[in-house]
Amino acid sequence: MSRPLAVLRPEPGASATVERITAAGYQPLRTPLFHVEQRGWPLVAASDHDALVLTSANTVRHLGPQLAELATLPVWAVGEATARTAADVGLSVVRVGTGGAKTLLETAWAAGVRRALWLGGESLRLSEHPAVSRMVAVYASTPLAPSLDAVRRLAGSVALVHSPRAAERFRHVLAEAGVAPSTLRLAAISPAAAEAAGDGWDALAVAAVPTDPALVTAAIRLAD
């Protein structure tokens, strides 16, 4: 019998992940660890920048009224989901990276980008890069506290972590509930997320590329 797959990400991404899991014939368990909400952020002039760096679809969803001002900037996006969401709202995507933010920024630097505006969540991981002249948080992921019973029911499942922060948070809630990592298998969206999750898991797999479909595929391999 296959293990259930624990979906820890917030909406609206959680529903997309659950749909992929269900379509593949597996059982999803929803236990969100964060709630995403928009933040107020200062006005930014597109003329001050030569590119827009986006590392999550949530960023695009929370741009708010400044979307029109920034629509003139070429977009460098991490992941197909981010790129697709950006294109859907009228942004011009010129490059889609599959190796994470650092790799994308190195490529942007080599292409002559020197004044990129990097928009993301409040926990942007890369502190600075010569291709980036400004970093702004446009949304916040507020930690949730799932019930102890809900966390304990995850024992025996395969948990999907979509970011290093989610991996750290998951480790924390397991400890609070007295659930040993060795009772779960973990699928991480990137090597950084796997590193943040620490060791001691029954098994661990990293997605081939940092996308939700690839992460679901990695989790299914662990579930069988």
TrEMBL record:
Pfam families: HEM4. The keyword Lyase applies. Gene3D superfamilies: 3.40.50.10090. Keywords: Lyase. The keyword Lyase applies. Residues 16-216 form the Tetrapyrrole biosynthesis uroporphyrinogen III synthase domain. Its EC number is 4.2.1.75. It comes from the Bacteria. GO terms for molecular function: uroporphyrinogen-III synthase activity. InterPro entries: 4pyrrol_syn_uPrphyn_synt_sf, 4pyrrol_synth_uPrphyn_synth. This is Uroporphyrinogen-III synthase. It comes from Sphingomonas molluscorum. The lineage of its organism: Bacteria, Pseudomonadati, Pseudomonadota, Alphaproteobacteria, Sphingomonadales.
